[in-house]
Amino acid sequence: MKITIVGSGYVGLVTGTCFAEVGIEVTCVDIDKKKIENLNQGIIPIFEPGLEEMVHRNIKKGRLKFTTSLAEALEDCEVLFTAVGTPPGKDGSADLQYVINVARECGKNMKDYLLIVTKSTVPVGTAEKVKMALQEELNKRGVDIPFDVASNPEFLKEGAAIDDFLKPDRIVVGLDSQRAEELMKSLYKPFTLNGHPIIFMDITSAEMTKYAANAMLATKISFMNDIANLCEIVGADINMVRKGIGSDSRIGNKFIYPGIGYGGSCFPKDVKALIRTAEDFNYKLRVLRAVEEVNLDQKSVLFNKVLNYYNGDLKDKVIALWGLSFKPQTDDMREAPSIVIVQKLLEAGAKVTAYDPVAMKEATHYLGETITYADDQYDALIDADCLLLVTEWPEFKFPNLKIIKKLLNKPVVFDGRNIYETAEMKRQGFDYFCIGIDTTK
User: Fold this and answer.
1) For the chain, which terminus, N or C, has the lower number of CB atoms within 10 Å?
2) Which stretch of DSSP H or E encloses residue 322?
């Protein structure tokens, strides 16, 4: 089977590469000529563990190709996946222009039956817009070529995307024809042999499923952060509370870790888009509005702790940051809490030195040269007044506390991810602050 993936960003590149890994002939299309040139040379535009090696392997085997020509990619193609961006507009709604453009280009260039599968995260009703745009182009050509449209939302976690695709919890597919169902069954057969379920449903439900899933996870995060803030006030320990509720099988222990807010390319954008979709139908998603409000506030919690510690005066203080990406195992800086924290520190007159294992190059697109980028985690501490742990990279979890204490002007640590033990940090002589625990007692 030959398939085409339009959009060679995070979702498109992972999707295309994983399909190629199981023997499917894949052509990835992107309008960015430089990106395609780099990909053809094996230069990967994103950091994702295991992806670079897999891309190289499948290029060498001839199963993975990259081009800027959609017309070329459509030759003998049975299934096309749309994995282009759907950035939020000013009102929070998803911008569908790139999705619709792909549909129009397919209508202009397709010669035989084609199944167009929307992989991009799109609001309810997008499939109908795709059908209309494609049919309009076919009508202009005066041809009657059959096609189907399906929705196949992605559920990839950045930092674990390869495993998520090859060993999915579930595969959700929305469609409305038997022919499309048989094609999707055949395409995903290698991934369902080990019992991973493929769930077929109507297209509208599939479009909603993606948003509902991300909204639920975002809700769990904001709920725990809200409870963590209350724990500090009343004297409870959020880590104990988390263990207490996480052992309840109805709740589970995932996504209930307190921190400094969610970021990335999905949760912030999808929560906004779902709120906007509801508004379009004259309905208010009150819970999600609160989720978004809590998250925005939570990104300032660590800064507020620093400001309070220094009695409101951060002028000329040197602040060391460990971690810039919104989560470990990725260089993604989109909506990262670190951006808010750094901007607030700079506005307060502080100076910032940061270190991240992979995201510092990407961080320059958001922070420029307003901060100093250190060569390693300990270099960031030299002459710094305190340390802020922002992203819980594995290499930060068991640092040499003696070195930290020696390099900092004063042993002060603000832990935004609760990865250190309060008792141990105090025993080592640190002024230690985290989320959801009053460590001043």
Assistant:
1) C
2) strand 318-322
Distance CA(436)–CA(441), nearest Å, equals: 13
Q: Name residues whose C-beta falls within 8 Å of residue 129's C-beta, 6 or more positions apart in sequence.
A: 96, 99, 100, 103
Cβ atoms of 299 and 338 closer than 8 Å: no
| Calpha distance 60→218 (Å, rounded) | 40
pTM of the model: 0.91
Total domain count, the chain = 3
Q: What confidence tens digit (pLDDT) does each residue in 396-405 have?
A: 999 999 999 9
Cα–Cα distance, 291 to 271 (Å, whole number): 8
Closest CA to 267 of 283, 291, 234: 291
Question: What is the pLDDT at residue 197?
Answer: 87
Q: Are residues 83 and 186 in the same domain?
A: yes
pLDDT in tens, 26-59: 999 999 999 999 999 889 999 999 999 999 999 9
What is the DSSP-derived secondary structure letter of residue 379?
G
Which tokens is 354 given? 């940061």
In what side-by-side order are the strands of the sheet with 386-389? 372-373, 351-355, 318-322, 386-389, 412-415, 431-433
Classify residue 394 by its DSSP letter: G
Whole-number Å distance between alpha carbons of 183 and 191: 14
Q: Give the CA distances from residue 22 to residues 17, 165, 173, 268, in Å, rounded to whole numbers and listed in that order.
A: 9, 11, 19, 33
386 close to 413: Cβ distance less than 8 angstroms: yes
Q: Are residues 264 and 373 in the same domain?
A: no
Q: With the CA atoms of 284, 128, 6 and 17 taken in that order, what torsion angle do they form, in degrees rounded to the nearest 10?
A: 70
Query: Catalytic site residues?
Result: 266
For the segment 158-167, what is each residue's pLDDT rounded down to a tens digit? 899 999 999 9
Three-state SS string over 120-136 comes to CCCCCCHHHHHHHHHHH
CB 390 within 8 A of CB 338: yes
Q: What are phi and psi of 109, to 5 degrees?
A: -120, -20
Residues in the chain: 441
Structural domain containing residue 284: 211-297
Percent of the chain with pLDDT over 70: 100
CATH for 235: 1.10.1040.10
Give the per-residue pLDDT at 321: 98
Q: Are 391 and 332 a contacting pair, CB within 8 Å?
A: no
| Residue 112 maps to a domain | yes
With a CB cutoff of 8 Å and minimum separation 6, the contacts of 319 are 306, 345, 350, 351, 352, 353, 384, 385, 386, 388
